[in-house]
Amino acid sequence: MRAQFWKRIKMAVSEVSSAKMFGGFQKVFSHESTQLKCKMNFGVYLPPQAESGKCPVLYWLSGLTCTEQNFVTKACAQRAAAEHGIIIIAPDTSPRGCNIEGEEDGWDFGTGAGFYVNATEDKWKTNYRMYSYVTEELPSVVNSSFPVNSDRQSVFGHSMGGHGALICYLKNPGKYRSVSAFAPICNPISCPWGQKAFSGYLGSNKDTWKEYDASELVKKYQGPPVDILIDQGTADSFLPAGQLLPDNFVAACTESKVPVVLRMQEGYDHSYYFMASFMDDHIKHHAKHLKA
C-alpha cells in the first residue's frame, strides 16, 4: 500500500528532496504551474499518521524574499505537526524565472514578493497570480497527490504571508477551518510595502486594492464564526515603521464584531526566531479547529 502511495505522488509531482523528521518526512516537490506559467517548488511535511490515512492540511504562506526553504528549515513546525497529525504545505512566494523586466530590481516587489494577489497590470498579469495559485491550483495539486482530508484545511503565514493568510481566509468563507499570522501586513493599502506592491500589480484603482486588504475585507465578512490568532513582536522594527499596522486590523474587527486575539510578544523581532518560539501555539490553534 505504501509503495502504491509513493508511486501516485511521483506521477503528479516531482520530488526534489526528502528527510525523515519526527517520524514523518519533510519533503520538497516541484510542479509546472498553469497559473504562474513556471516551475514552482513547495515544501510538504508528511506526519507519520499520513502513512495510514488521510490527514488535515495546513497551508503556510511566507514573507518577503522567502522561498519554501525558509519555513522548512527555520520554523520548527514539524514536531508539533507530527504530534497533531497535520500535513503542512509551504509554497514559494512568487513565480520564478519569468524574465519580466524589473522583477529582480528590488526585494519588496517582483521575485520573492508576489503579495498573494492576482495582478491586473499587463506586465505582471500573466505570471503574478499568487492568489489563485495558493487558493486554487496548489490545493488541487496537493489534494490529488497527498493523503489530505480536503474538507479540513487551514492557513497561516508571516508578514506578507500573514497578509496572504488573512485575505485568503476572509475572501473564502468556509474554505479554511482557521487562520493565524505572525506579524502580518494587516492594512497594505496604508503602508509603503503594500502601496508599492498594489500600485505595481493592480494599478491605480484603489477600490481594487481593498479586495486584497484584510482590514477592509473583515468589514464585510459574512461567514462562519472566526477565531483569528495574531502574534506580533514588540521589538519588530517594521512595527514602528508603519508597515504592519495590527491596530488597524483589530479596530476593523472590533467595528465588525469579528473576534481576534492579538498577542504582543515582549522583545521579539520579525525573524524566524520569533516564529519558532510560538509555532507550537499556532499549530495547536489550528489543530483545535481541524479536528473539531
List the helices and strands and how they pair.
Layout: H1 2-12, E1 14-21, E2 24-33, E3 38-46, E4 55-61, H2 68-74, H3 78-84, E5 87-91, H4 130-145, E6 148-158, H5 160-171, E7 179-182, H6 192-202, H7 206-210, H8 214-217, E8 228-233, H9 246-256, E9 260-265, H10 272-290
Parallel strand pairs: 4-5, 4-6, 6-7, 7-8, 8-9
Antiparallel strand pairs: 1-2, 2-3, 3-5
Can you describe this structure?
Strands 1-2-3-5-4-6-7-8-9 form a nine-stranded mixed sheet, sandwiched between helices. The chain has helices at 2-12, 68-74, 78-84, 130-145, 160-171, 192-202, 206-210, 214-217, 246-256, 272-290; strands spanning 14-21, 24-33, 38-46, 55-61, 87-91, 148-158, 179-182, 228-233, 260-265. α3 (78-84) packs parallel to α10. It is globular and about 50 Å long. The chain contains ten helices and nine strands. The protein has 292 residues and is α/β, with parallel strands linked by helices.
Q: In order across it, which strands form the biggest sheet? A: 1-2-3-5-4-6-7-8-9
Instruction: Give the helix/strand class.
Output: alpha/beta
How many individual helices?
10
Name the overall outline: globular
* SSE order, one letter for each helix or strand: HEEEEHHEHEHEHHHEHEH
pLDDT < 50 stretches: none
Count of β-strands: 9
Characterize the quaternary organization of these chains.
single chain
Main β-sheet: number of strands, strand sense, barrel status? 9 strands, mixed
Beta-strand proportion: 15-25%
Radius of gyration: 18 Å
